[in-house]
Design goal:
alpha/beta, Rossmann fold, 5-stranded parallel β-sheet, 14 helices, 5 strands, globular
Length: 283
């Protein structure tokens, strides 16, 4: 792999933003100018809502390249890594459209980054209990590793816990991340609806090709309806390799006890802005 960047790009790489992530006006102007050179797909989805499936379909549709846009995922909440985007926007690598999928909150530094490079992220709404059930299934099917958590460590004895204890652990440790994820992104989407595309899991189930087309249009990589349908069909054949689980809605309500559902709901109530979204996040 080799690529070249100019002096302006090199300067941008080594110019630090403010402590909250905000870039100075000149730096922002430069980053926005290069950000508009090459569109890309940014799926800023939470875990377990078909993000891997949809990114695979997007890659098929636009002949794209999956790129890790963080320094190292390693079990952490994602923060975009500027050198990756400089390499893509200025260095021309990869040659194909960049497609990425990151578990990322709309925290201030991430918002500044998205705006500076004029990125167009998409998020997914899904029942949180359903996602937690799918997370439990993943941990049962695969050995716990640094790839399978968000800002926490799965304890060595997790597999030996009974089902109630496993569920309690996720509700206590990972559920706060989901609540913060939706609180930050839905507030950002309300503030900048032209920048943040809000997708719904139920729509994906009903018409995945239409969702893919909406995603690519939003990203600046328009794609014909027929090509989107072919891309979805191609991705569907590899869905199990991409951790596409049951995909059923309503599993969380039947899996968790009433007390556990109440605890999940309590995390959401900490963010008053989520009240209008309660029926979608906790059906």
């Amino acid at each position: 792999m080799s690529f070249e960047i100019d002096a302006d790009a090199a300067t941008a790489l080594f110019t630090l933003p403010a402590s909250d992530g905000e870039y100075d006006p000149d730096h922002t102007a430069y980053l926005r100018a290069i950000g508009r050179r090459r569109p890309s797909v940014l799926l800023a989805f939470p875990p377990k809502c078909a993000g891997t499936f949809l990114r695979t379909a997007a890659i098929h549709a636009v002949n794209g390249q999956l790129v890790r846009v963080v320094h190292a995922q390693g079990g952490r909440d994602a923060t975009p890594y500027l050198p990756v985007y400089i390499r893509y926007l200025v260095g021309g690598y990869p040659r194909e459209p960049l497609v990425t999928h990151v578990h990322m909150q709309a925290l201030p530094a991430n918002r500044y980054f998205v705006e500076a490079l004029d990125l167009k992220p998409a998020i997914m709404l899904r029942s949180v209990p359903d996602m937690l059930v799918s997370y439990l299934d993943m941990l049962a099917a695969e050995p716990a590793s640094s790839n399978h958590w968000l800002n926490i460590a799965i304890p060595p004895g997790f597999a030996a816990l009974d089902e109630t204890a496993k569920a309690d652990f996720l509700i206590d440790t990972i559920m706060p991340w989901y609540a913060s994820y939706y609180a930050t992104w839905l507030a950002y989407a309300a503030q900048a609806p032209e920048r943040v595309l809000v997708l719904r899991y139920g729509d994906l189930k009903r018409d995945p090709a239409a969702m893919l087309q909406a995603l690519l249009d939003h990203s600046g990589l328009g794609c014909a309806e027929e090509m989107c349908e072919l891309a979805v069909a191609a991705a569907w054949h590899t869905r199990f390799e991409n951790r596409f689980n049951h995909g059923e809605e309503g599993r969380g309500v039947s899996r968790f006890s009433a007390g556990q559902i109440d605890r999940i709901a309590r995390h959401l109530t900490y963010y008053g802005a989520l009240a209008p979204w309660r029926e979608e996040l906790l059906p």
